Amino acid sequence: MNRSNFYSTTNPESFYCRIMLPKAVKIKDALIVTKGAMKSMGMLAYQEEIWEELLDGRVVAMSPRPAVNHNVVAENIIRIFGNYLEGKPCRVFGEIDVYLTEKDRVIPDAIIVCNNDIIRKNGVYGAPDLIVEVLSPGTAAKDKGYKRKLYEKCGVREYWLVDTDSCSIEVHLLHEGRFELDDVYSVYPDYLLEKMTEEEKNNITYTFKTSLFSDMSIELEKVFQGML
Question: I want to staple 110 with a disulfide (CB 3.0 to 4.6 A). Which of 9, 26, 132, 188 is the partner?
Fold first, then answer.
């Protein structure tokens, strides 16, 4: 197979792209083969776009769709980075197709890309500098397992695993080709704070930094604000 054709983005609606990548691009063509079956079963309401990832050559449906808190936190993270990156060369994207290998296409909740050469009209072709995955019950195992190994192998510099239940962020940094857990940052609920000593409270981290930008300080509360 000609890899230049596989990664062609000059005409994503072309016959070749529709045949070779029906599951890899969020286009309505991916639903053509299933709409008839859904209609025959009375599933007329389920004709919206179905988002799918490609993991090790297997199509994996991203369903059910994320809950409210998942979306709130993902939007907060995108906004925080968007405000900081205004006028800077790096860019932040949310829920965009990221093509890492011929067998792997992922849709992270947020990414930071500092190499504009890998950004194309229909997605990002190559490893982002930072990837954020907000955990959901149906995706947590993949985010912590296969995807973590994939991002490590592809050279993602920083990987966040964000848990809306515990209001925590695991930060993994790439070191000599392998991810290492750098730290876990958490927002503590009031009932836990009441049980802490003053010394324990003084050791709580309220802000943290990303390895990408030394002058950027991220407030934990702003990451999780607005959750239900």
Answer: 132
What domains lie within the chain, and their CATH numbers? 1-50 (no CATH), 66-224 (3.90.1570.10)
Q: What would the pLDDT profile of 33-61 be if each residue is shown by its tens digit?
A: 333 443 444 444 444 566 899 999 999 98
* Contact predicate 56/104, CB 8 Å: yes
Instruction: Pull the structure tokens for residue 76.
Output: 């907060």
Separation CA 17–CA 9 (nearest Å): 9
Q: Which one-letter DSSP state was computed for residue 50? A: P
Residue 125 · residue 95 · CB < 8 Å: no
More confidently predicted of 92 and 63: 92
Amino acid 158 reads E
* Residue pair 179/173 in contact by the 8 Å Cβ criterion: yes
Q: Is the pTM of this model over 0.85?
A: no
pLDDT of the residue at 62: 81
What pLDDT is attached to residue 66?
79
Torsion of CA 140, 141, 142, 147, to 10 degrees: 90
Q: What tokens were used for 124?
A: 């990002």
Q: Give me the residue label for tokens 């529709």.
A: 18
153-178: per-residue pLDDT in tens?
999 999 999 999 999 999 999 999 99
Helix boundaries (H) for 132-211: 140-144, 146-154, 190-193, 198-202
Share of the chain above pLDDT 70, in %: 78
> What does the alpha-carbon distance between residue 79 and residue 94 come to, in Å, rounded to a whole number?
10
